[in-house]
Amino acid sequence: MAMVINTNTASLTTQRHLSSSRGEMEVAMERMSSGSRVNSSMDDAAGLAIGNRMTSQVEGINQAVRNANDGISLAQTAEGALGSSQNILQRMRVLAVQAANDTYSSVDRKAINNEIVQLKEELNRGVNQASFNGNKILNGTNASFTFQVGHMSGDNVVVTLGDMRGSMIGTQSWDPKASSTAPVTVAAVAGITTAGYDNVKVYQVNCDYIISEGFGLLGDINNNCYVDLKDIEMFLLEWLNCMHPDDLDCQ
User: Fold this and answer.
1) Are 221 and 57 in contact (CB under 8 A)?
2) Which of 25, 46, 181, 242 has the most CB atoms lying inside 10 A of its own CB?
3) What is the domain partition of the chain in residue ranges?
4) Sequence-distant (≥ 6) Cβ neighbours of residue 243 within 8 angstroms
């Protein structure tokens, strides 16, 4: 007795096409739901590696921008404290020049000296209280600060503030008969404080430039990674074509 096995070739072909279309549809839905063309190494191993590297760069640049902004905040704190110190030093210089005039008696010069001593104490108080996030920034405890303003090693900026306390002035009192030394000493400290003030301003300018460069780099990365609407349209058309079993390209 002969055995006959009937095979429904058309049904098998249809099932194969449906299985292939289902696989294509799952990949397409995954891409549409995630908004990414590459969702795993199966889609594009090289593209996934490049995308991960660029993501790492973007996150590093974002943190570098935040670091630079924190550095600017520290510099602005130092700038405010140095502004007050400059006002005190200017007053001390005026008093020193005044005491150098021989029209004043020793009693007058002693009164001037007492005011300068009080100004020096106020200067020290302000400098010792100037801090940022618990770090003293003007009393010499932290002579310099290093800010990481890039995503690569070595992308940093060093700000040197130094010691701005009254002890840096030198002579704090003088003999009324030798008053000519006072203006020279106070003038020297005024120059030191001005130098520290200028360092802070230069740092702020540098950080502003770094931040603008960082955002510019982020813009370049975004522009190089945009998804064109025409590409999406072509992708959807290919996906719709794959829904038809007669499309040989989807087999």
Assistant:
1) yes
2) 242
3) 45-224
4) 21, 25
